[in-house]
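hiii so um. not sure if this is the right channel but i have a protein structure encoded as tokens and i wanna go backwards to a sequence. like what aa goes where. can anyone help
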């Protein structure tokens, strides 16, 4: 299908079926009025969608940006919002914000890490990111808040493996919560996952590959209102790159979390960091993440929610994630039905970022 529409202005998309978070509507009209979704089609340029499906702009709940090229790669794949987990210094991050016509971002800025984990090997990171004890937590969180971090990224390892200890981790969470900032905890092993729960992290990213999550951790995730962003595409890529077993355990853990009612967010861990064992490509890898979530047992509609309404809800972005008047006109028009086959999310006809058609 070929769609011709102006780059900016008022456009009426006729004869589109809208994903409403649960299913598809009957063919309807959606108006793009400047940067938001409007209500009146009068005076709008008319585009016939020919029955194609309109999704809310996709949200990748775990990326690492490499520059403006990352934003354009994400936008080309329908990812209109990216939740960045590490970008520093603040000047570099500021240059990526508020760029019309491409992917909008939120970011943790500089993460908080331990002195002996694998992340200290990322060039230039250690001197800005290492926490040496709980007494440093308040100042480190304040520094990130002042620099514009939208949430705090806390990198945890299993006890004794070089990450922040429990006292430091709890102090970071307490300091963040005192400033109304959420904490996203990196936890790629069973020991780190339990530590993230004990520390009080709001969102736990990655999923262990050294065994299935124990029933008690799953119970706590559900009972305590925690949120999971498992980054299955990254965990599979690392397993293949390092010749490890365990990805089946990762899939099983996601299935168990979902069955227990834990919110699951789609995050790819897309990056181009030197030395990282696997580098999921920006944009394309979120579609792979959706496919893996369906493999893990999420119905396609739930997988789509994991990349639209749910990350908007749990990262505090009330202006996006669904298609409704007054919200940002972040939209993806696709040929094919992703509720019948999740692979159809790749058949992108057009993307709008804040009402601007992404070339």
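sure thing!! here u go:
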């Amino acid at each position: 299908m070929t769609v011709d529409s102006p780059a900016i202005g008022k456009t009426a998309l006729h004869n589109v079926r809208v994903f409403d978070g649960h299913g598809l509507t009957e063919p309807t009209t959606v108006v793009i009025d400047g940067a938001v979704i409007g209500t009146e089609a009068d005076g709008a340029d008319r585009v016939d969608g020919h029955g194609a499906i309109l999704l809310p702009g996709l949200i990748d709940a775990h990326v690492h940006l490499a520059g403006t090229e990352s934003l354009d790669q994400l936008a080309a794949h329908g990812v209109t919002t990216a939740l960045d987990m590490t970008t520093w210094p603040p000047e570099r991050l500021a240059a990526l914000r508020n760029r019309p016509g491409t992917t909008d971002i939120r970011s943790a800025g500089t993460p908080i890490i331990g002195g002996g984990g694998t992340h200290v090997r990322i060039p230039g990171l250690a001197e800005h990111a290492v926490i040496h004890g709980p007494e440093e937590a308040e100042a480190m969180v304040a520094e990130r808040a002042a620099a514009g971090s939208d949430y705090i990224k806390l990198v945890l390892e299993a006890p004794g493996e070089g990450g922040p200890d429990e006292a430091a981790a709890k102090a970071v969470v307490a300091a963040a919560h005192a400033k109304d900032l959420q904490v996203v905890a990196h936890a790629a092993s069973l020991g780190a996952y339990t530590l993230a729960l004990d520390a009080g992290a709001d969102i736990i990213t990655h999923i262990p590959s050294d065994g299935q999550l124990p029933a008690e951790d799953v119970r706590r995730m559900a009972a305590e209102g925690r949120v999971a962003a498992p980054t299955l595409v990254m965990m599979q890529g690392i397993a293949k790159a390092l010749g490890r077993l365990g990805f089946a355990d990762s899939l099983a853990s996601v299935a168990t979390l979902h069955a227990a009612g834990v919110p699951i967010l789609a995050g790819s861990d897309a990056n181009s960091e030197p030395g990282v064992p696997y580098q999921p490509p920006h944009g394309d890898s979120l579609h792979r993440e959706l496919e893996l979530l369906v493999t893990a047992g999420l119905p396609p509609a739930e997988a789509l929610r994991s990349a639209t309404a749910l990350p908007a809800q749990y990262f505090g972005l009330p202006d996006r994630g669904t298609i409704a008047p007054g919200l940002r006109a972040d939209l993806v028009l696709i040929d094919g039905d992703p509720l019948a086959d999740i692979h159809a999310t790749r058949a992108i006809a057009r993307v709008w970022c804040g009402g601007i058609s992404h070339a």
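oh and The mean pLDDT is 95.
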